[in-house]
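Take one record.
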Amino acid sequence: HWLGTDQLGRDVLSSMIFGASTALKVGLLAAFLALLIAIILGAAAGYYGDHGLKISRIELLLLIIFTFIWGYNLCFLVVSNLVLWCIFIALWLVIRYIAKGNRNIKVPVDSLVMRMIEVMNVLPGLLVILVLLSIFQMEGVMSLSFAIALLMWPKLTQFMRAEMLDTKTKTYISAAKASGTKDMVVIWRHALPNALPPVLIAAAFSISSSILLESTISFLGLGFNGSAQTWGSLLAEARSNFSAWWLVVFPGLAIFLVVMAFNILAERLSDYWRKT
């Protein structure tokens, strides 16, 4: 046992290797989910603003229902009702075709997104995660990643919105609009590829923050069942045995090195982006 054993006689090195897998999964998945939310909300808020998106009343009602179903599936991780999703998407397309040309409601996308961000920024992040994990009894990598992503998306959305506001004023965007290209094509084919790289740099920084949050939550005994070994749980075991210094030094050093590595990676990406 090169790095010693814990209070149950389990090898610390093996636990750290397993904990590294858990930390990287949670960090990368949480950053990806937060980036996905940021791309959708930030791109829509920056491109459309408060007056650019006009939809019919039927489409607005469907959008509200779709958002509720999507949020329900994410919160409770319901992934088995694929038939319901297919029926809803088909119904959406049919009603969009029927309601085509009846676009008489302006949706203030920018104001709605910014108000959501302000609400999320006011709430204490760690407390929100702990409440979600406790109320919904969420355990495992996917559940913890989603809870952390709920804390990470506002900052990434602000970056995405700012980049989209700058990108949509470019000449090639005006030329694409003048040629009759649809808004969705302009966003995904022209605006988003040029606005996304700086946001990816911010997402790289969020990976290290996600790993720190995962370690904190594991240290508090939440997020995983009692038998799961993570870096945070190894640190928690040291509280009951102060003489076992290796339970503090090695997991703490691993957390420090991984977080520093992702921060350095993000800084290198930022320097490369500035040079190009």
Q: What stands out?
A: Residues 76-80 have pLDDT under 50 and may be disordered. Residues 12-48 form the longest helix (37 residues).
